[in-house]
Design brief:
Layout (H helix, E strand, L loop, with lengths): L1 H20 L22 H7 L4 E3 L5 E8 L9 E5 L4 E7 L12 E5 L4 E5 L2 E8 L8 E3 L1 E2 H7 E4 L10 E3 L12 E9 L17 E8 L2 E11 L14 E10 L2 E5 L6 E2 L14 E2 H6 L6 E12 L15 E2 L14 E5 L10 E5 L5 H6 L11 E8 L7 E3 L8 E2 L6 E5 L9 E6 L5 E3 L4 E5 L1 E2 L4 E2 L2 E6 L11 E10 L3 H4 E6 L13 E3 L14 E2 L3 E2 L11 E8 L6 E11 L21 H5 L7 E12 L11 E2 L9 E5 L11 E4 L5 H6 L11 E8 L7 E3 L7 E4 L26 E6 L26 E3 L6 E3 L7 E4 L4 E8 L4 E12 L3 E2 L4 E4 L2 E2 L6 E2 L5 E4 L10 E7 L8 E12 L2
Parallel strand pairs: 4-7, 4-9, 11-12, 14-16, 18-19, 22-24, 43-45
Antiparallel strand pairs: 1-6, 2-3, 2-5, 3-4, 5-10, 6-7, 7-8, 12-13, 12-15, 13-14, 15-16, 15-17, 19-20, 19-21, 19-23, 21-22, 23-24, 23-25, 26-39, 27-32, 28-29, 29-39, 30-31, 32-38, 33-36, 33-37, 33-39, 34-35, 34-38, 40-41, 40-42, 40-44, 42-43, 44-45, 44-46, 47-59, 48-51, 49-50, 50-59, 51-58, ...
Length: 895
């Protein structure tokens, strides 16, 4: 009975519980709408202008307000938010993970800034707090402690994401006042399409990669998107084609950057008019509507005719009668061969709806496309690359060279073989002639890799290993080329990492067949695993085209004393001629028939001493490596006297079409040619003799002897008002030192590869012979790499460079500048700098691996002559190995 009562009681309780659960009218928990009791008293723009130094405490009672435009919701931003009002945007650094839980996009905030700090990191202003890396009293800008931030930052109302709207930026509208704002870049594409946004280091650590974004309307204008491997979209694939990318516009050491907030900021959709790219060409109608607007790109249309004979500048196109839509009825052929006319449709016959395309003399484009010799081309689709500009009175596409790179027609540009090496070596096969190590596929980082070095035992082994393509059928192709991406380190590229082709290989030991080498024109610098290089568009020799059973192979060699590593991906065989290694002109390389600049560009790094002639168009700035157009100058005033840029076109402004010519110290070539002292030389022709090899990381001419003759000829340009400083940029930019140069040490133009690197105490080719250079540790040396000129190397641990006896008498406001980088990522303040035995403050600047940043010591040097400067790599601080170059003192002449 007792059990029955207990069961009844339990049943009643269950009924009550179920009854309660079915009541869905819950009370809403109390929640107060956040409301700030106050108002802002200064705009973001005014606040940034007031506190614009490297590190300043906010001492006034400023209150700023703005809406949160970005946070760390995806993991691509780290411990920071951005706020914005109608005048500008501001980075706010907060020492907290997952800030997005508290500060959502669209949240309006007020910041009582008194007691916080404004500062700059890499030139980017931010609101934060002072930070001492070594707790030594040397402060830089850092993050606001979370608890402190809650005393200064206040939410107002609920978040309204719809209120956050990015501003649209064009290539010509990127300004410093927009740094910190949410922007949208339209009509852009990624250089690294098809790759992952980011990935961890080989050790599994978080890293942030640079992904270059280009405007399709002006491919020379780039923005660097920063992509962290911590982002939740890091493993996604970067889209191809054209689209828009939204993010926060920032800057780091003069490099314009974009911080993408999440994957929804990347939006790629098709544009019916195209974007002027090879994979997304402009329509004919678009090209007609955008004539003479400084646009260069690809256009697709149908060949509908050519120009009638007699059309020229004095007799331009004015009607349909000036277009030959059909062969001449008497001769039964088209007469002219230097032009074609293209249209949106093959039936178009209205001259105002047509584009005239020039076919450069002697080009493959003329031989393949002209209607006099190829009447069957009429009505066929063609794609051409050039400048949208009027030609002989009609809308046109002005083609530069007419190489296979300037057009796509029929099988030209067709993909014959593509192997990404992303997860497997297949369909390539391997053959190990010598050594236990073999080619492998790295599926984590998506490349093929071969190394004779075993890291576990730190041992180098002798190897000969081949990575061989499947049989390739080239019977239908009169020309083809190879291209791939690769990085190589620690080996001799010319002998250890090579490319070969065979028409009689049938399998097994490749040494049983005959092979012809294809010279790889471009190798990586060797300074970093992330410094991938494109091989160039390497021509397949003509004796192999038109045949079946062709094999292409990568050959790797190592020894017990030298064992490099070679990584390869994105391998293509493409129909049509390449652009590397071919003869783009007819120069013989002698004095009477020098090479053109186009010829010099495709014959780099072959130990070729030759005469070259071109127009002087500019200089490489005082940098060690050219990484962007910011590193060169094409208009006065010219900042360097050590080099000039030569081009085939006197109006050239793309450094990729130039070679950098070294002007050795103490020679007539430097004194008479350099643009810093002779700006009127711009536009003149220079004929000079030297070795075609990389200089500043771009194509160059070097190893010029002091007694080598040269010829300077022609009329130069008016350099303009010598008092006009041009565009000085940000006057606070440390990479653009102002004042007269008192002292400059570049460590010469010598080549110091592995095994030939003199110690500081033994080096005798300093630019400045009247001062003393030393290293008491006797560990520092002078060296060069494939992409870096001669510089000082401070190995890991204790080492130094001491310069004594510099005369600065007669100058005031003296400042020190130098180029600095590490063999891995580091910070500029890891290097200790002393002036006359007193340590100075080195700014906190994050330094990318083997990428120079110009560091300026803000403290004015007041010490009297002679001056002593010490650069010290100290045990415990120098953890990666440091590189120094272009040490400079500037100042003002005493009145």
């Amino acid at each position: 009975m007792k059990s029955l009562i207990q069961l009844s009681t339990l049943f009643i309780i269950i009924l009550i519980l179920f009854s309660g659960c079915r009541d869905e009218n819950f009370d809403t928990p109390p929640h107060d709408r956040p409301q700030y009791q106050g108002e802002s008293n200064i705009s973001i723009q005014e606040f940034k202008a007031k506190y614009s130094g490297q590190l300043e405490e906010v001492t006034g009672n400023e209150v700023i307000s703005g809406v949160v435009t970005a946070n760390d919701v995806s993991g691509n931003l780290y411990k920071q938010i951005f706020i914005e009002d109608e005048t500008g945007g501001l980075l706010v650094a907060i020492d907290r993970n997952n800030i997005y839980n508290d500060l959502r996009v669209g949240q309006n905030v007020y910041i009582e800034a008194s007691g916080l700090y404004m500062g700059q990191y890499g030139g980017m202003q931010q609101l934060g707090y002072r930070f001492s890396r070594d707790n030594d009293g040397n402060y830089s800008i850092g993050q606001i402690p979370w608890e402190l931030s809650r005393q200064h930052l206040f939410k107002d109302d609920y978040p309204d994401p719809e209120a956050v709207v990015p501003m649209s930026l064009t290539p010509n509208n990127i300004r410093t006042e927009y740094y910190g704002r949410l922007v949208r870049l339209d009509g852009v594409y990624f250089d690294d399409a098809g790759q992952r946004y980011s990935f961890p280091t080989q050790e599994g650590n978080i890293q942030t990669l640079n992904r270059i974004i280009r405007f399709s309307s002006n491919s020379s204008q780039t923005v660097t998107a920063r992509m962290s491997s911590a982002a939740n979209f890091a493993g996604d694939t970067i889209p191809s084609g054209i689209g828009s990318v939204t993010g926060i516009l920032t800057v780091f050491n003069n490099t314009v950057q974009l911080m993408v907030r999440d994957i929804h900021d990347v939006n790629f959709e098709e544009n019916p008019d195209g974007w002027g790219l090879e994979g997304s060409p402009w329509s004919v109608n678009y090209a007609i509507d955008n004539q003479d607007n400084n646009k260069t790109g690809w256009v697709k249309g149908y060949i509908v005719g050519t120009l009638q004979p007699g059309i020229n500048d004095e007799n331009p196109v004015t009607s349909n009668d000036d277009i030959a839509f059909e062969p001449d009825p008497d001769l039964e052929m088209f007469i002219t061969q230097n032009y074609i006319v293209i249209a949106q449709s093959p039936e178009e016959r209205d001259w105002e709806n047509l584009l005239v395309v020039n076919l450069p003399q002697g080009s493959s484009m003329r031989s393949v496309l002209n209607l006099r010799d190829n009447e069957g081309n009429l009505g066929r689709e063609v794609q051409v690359r050039g400048s949208l500009q009027n030609i002989l009175g009609a809308a046109g596409v002005q083609v530069a060279t007419g190489s296979d790179a300037d057009y796509k027609f029929g099988s030209t540009g067709e993909e014959i073989l593509y192997v990404p090496f992303s997860t497997t070596l297949s369909p390539f096969t391997t053959y190990s002639v010598t050594g236990a190590q073999e080619w492998e596929a790295n599926s984590q980082y998506n490349y093929a890799i071969m190394s004779g070095y075993v890291n576990a035992t730190q041992t180098r082994y002798e190897n000969e290993d081949w990575l061989i393509s499947p049989a390739i059928d080239l019977t239908e192709y009169h020309a083809a080329h190879v291209t791939f991406e690769h990085v190589s380190r620690y080996g001799d590229n010319n002998s250890d990492h090579t490319l070969w082709i065979s028409d009689d290989y049938t399998g097994g030991d490749p040494n049983s067949a005959s092979w012809t080498q294809i010279i790889i024109q471009n190798y990586s610098s060797g300074g970093s695993w992330y410094d991938w290089a494109n091989s160039g568009r390497l021509n397949i020799p003509s004796e192999f085209t038109g045949k079946d059973g062709i094999h292409i192979a990568f050959k790797y060699l190592s020894t017990t004393s030298r064992a490099g590593t070679w990584q390869i991906n994105e391998f293509y065989v493409i129909s049509g001629e390449g652009s590397e290694g071919q003869d783009p002109g007819n120069g013989d390389g002698n004095f009477d028939d020098p090479l053109s600049i186009a010829e010099a560009l495709v014959n780099q790094n072959l130990n070729l001493f030759t005469w070259v002639e071109g127009y002087i168009v500019g200089v490489v700035n005082q940098v060690s490596t050219v990484n962007s157009s910011n590193d060169v100058t094409f208009n006065a005033p010219f900042p360097s006297f050590t080099n000039v840029l030569l081009a085939d076109d006197p109006n050239e402004t793309d450094y990729n079409n130039c070679i950098a010519v070294n002007l050795p110290a103490g020679t007539d070539l430097r004194s008479q040619v350099n643009l810093a002292d002779n700006p009127e030389n711009k536009g003149k022709k220079l004929k000079v003799y030297g070795n075609l090899r990389n200089y500043f990381g771009i194509a160059g001419l070097r190893d010029i002897e002091s007694d080598d003759p040269f010829v300077l000829s022609g009329e130069g340009s008016d350099p303009g008002d010598p008092g006009d400083p041009g565009d000085p940029g940000d006057p606070g930019d440390p990479g653009d030192p102002t004042g007269d140069v008192i002292f400059l040490e570049t460590f010469g133009d010598g080549d110091y590869p592995f095994g030939e690197r003199p110690k500081i105490n033994d080096f005798d080719d300093f630019d400045n012979q009247d001062v003393t250079f030393s290293d008491s540790w006797e560990r520092a040396d002078i060296r060069s790499t494939a992409s870096m000129n001669a510089h000082v190397w401070l190995p890991v641990g204790d080492s130094e460079l001491v310069i004594e006896g510099i005369d600065i008498s007669g100058f005031t406001n003296v400042q020190l500048h130098y180029d600095f980088t590490g063999n891995n990522s580091t910070n500029a303040n890891s290097l200790i700098v002393k002036i006359n035995d007193t340590e100075v403050t080195v700014p906190s600047v994050n330094i990318s691996s083997n990428t120079y940043s110009t560091i300026t010591i803000s403290e004015t040097i007041t010490a009297e002559s002679p001056l002593k400067i010490e650069f010290i790599g100290e045990e415990g601080k120098n953890l990666v190995g440091f590189r120094l170059d272009n040490i400079k003192l500037t100042g003002e002449i005493e009145e």
